[in-house]
TrEMBL record:
Organism: marine sediment metagenome
Protein name per its UniProtKB record: HTH cro/C1-type domain-containing protein
One Pfam family, short name: HTH_31
Residue span, HTH cro/C1-type domain: 14-68
Any one GO molecular function term: DNA binding
Upper lineage: unclassified sequences, metagenomes, ecological metagenomes
């Protein structure tokens, strides 16, 4: 599914915020409770993150994410 032009995904927004924060992966890990290796691998595009990890990183970075759920319907 293509995303709307001009809108960033949560992953893209989070990656930008991590880089812009100027925090090291170790410091962000200390603040969020997420391992520095997980943060580094995420920023480098080597892995995705669980929702709970996204929430922890967002909180440590002072971001407020809007949660949306999608419902699947049977045809």
């Amino acid at each position: 599914m293509a995303r709307s032009q001009g809108k960033m995904t949560v992953s893209e927004t989070l990656k930008q915020a991590i880089v812009a924060s100027g925090l090291t992966a170790r410091e962000l890990g200390r603040r969020s409770g997420v391992t520095h290796s997980s943060i580094t691998r995420f920023v480098n595009g080597e892995r995705g993150l669980r929702h709970s990890v996204v929430d922890a990183l967002a909180e440590a970075l002072g971001l407020q994410l809007e949660k949306r759920t999608r419902r699947c319907r049977r045809a």
